[in-house]
Amino acid sequence: MRHRLLLAALALSSCVQPSPPVVAELTKAPLYPSWEEVAAQTTAPVATPTASFGWRLDAPVESQPLRGNATLQTLSVSKNGDSVDLQLVYFDSRSHELKIIDQPEDGAGGGQITASMQQAGAIAGVNGGFFTPQFTPMGLMIADGGATGTWQSNTLLTGAVVVRHSPQLLWNSEVRQSRSACHLIQAGPRLVDSGKPVASLERRKHVPRTFIATDGSHRWIFGLARHTSLGELAEILATPDLLPGFQVHRALNLDGGRSSAIYYRTADGREQSAPGWSTVRNYLAIVPR
Question: Are strands 56-57 and 71-79 parallel, antiparallel or unpaired?
């Protein structure tokens, strides 16, 4: 009997079981993007009916192996004279853990991504979710079982990255049914759902964007897209056969603009980073299992 109790205690200690999220309306404006950029969506996302979006590759994709059998791909796509450069990190959740890295120092600077990834033993990372002017997470954040902030449901925070035994990309109604998580971060808006771009996303503001996407199973991408709108990014990610060997099932926007940053470590051990212009509160990182 004592042996069974010890095993149960160890299982529960692996991650917390937070109280059901408290839904609260957001009262502080996000640092980026503005509320006007994001279409109000309080129900399930509506997908556009066609997959013929006109985006095409401008040149052969450059592929580079990373530590832990992940892959970095660099590519450029264009449509009607508009070009978008992307850096994409591909990984498999069966061989990598996806973690939320808390970064509580508000004066750390954009270059803090390198030190944070090194400390976590990560082979790649990208900036995470939004934060308030007081440098607190916007919405709920759980990093290594420690919860900060509160659950919020509004036109910007429409989904979440949730990690229990493996990562999931969930919409708000699904997250509210979740009872436990070792890592969780709210973000938004939704970009792709069921392989289709979400309709009515903003198309006028062209800035750096960061995002995370999944094929609906164990294959994942996170990446940085330079100077594009939310609507264009959704189309790019949903275009069939545009991303080599990967079809996006769901994609979620992260905190972009000045916060956009990416880090990776190549297979031969070289570190590369494109730090953001501002300090951010958290990062998404992948660590080999």
Answer: antiparallel
Burial environment of residue 101 by CB neighbours within 10 A (0 to 12, 13 to 18, 19 or more): buried
- DSSP assignment string, 104-115: --TTS-TTHHHH
DSSP reduced 3-state for 271: strand
Cα–chain-centroid distance for residue 5?
A: 37
Number of neighbours of residue 24 by Cβ within 10 angstroms: 12
pLDDT, mean over the chain: 84
Range of the domain at 207: 2-288
Q: Nearest 5°: phi and psi at 257?
A: 60, -130
Q: Choose among 141, 155, 167, 281: nearest CA to 222.
A: 167
Query: Tokens at residue 72, please?
Result: 């970095």
Tell me the C-alpha distance between 118 and 106, whole Å: 19
Q: In the prediction, which pLDDT does 17 show? A: 43
Asked whether the whole model's pTM tops 0.90, one would answer no
**pLDDT for 51-95, tens place per residue?**
469 999 998 999 999 988 899 999 999 999 899 999 999 999 999
Q: Token pair 């607190």 is at which residue? A: 136
pLDDT of 217 higher than 50: yes
Mean of the pLDDT values across residues 233-238? 97
| Single-letter amino acid code for the residue at 171 | W
Scan for tokens 């997908």, then name that residue. Answer: 47
Going by C-alpha positions, the residue among 44, 31, 272, 39 that lies closest to residue 129 is 31
Continuous segment of H or E residues that includes residue 47? none
* Distance from the first to the final alpha carbon of the chain: 32
- CA-CA distance, 7 to 13, in Å (whole number)? 10
Q: Give the tokens for residue 13.
A: 């200690």
Q: Residue 112 — φ and ψ, nearest 5°?
A: -65, -15
Number of domains making up the chain: 1
Of 203, 271, 258, the closest CA to residue 232 belongs to: 203
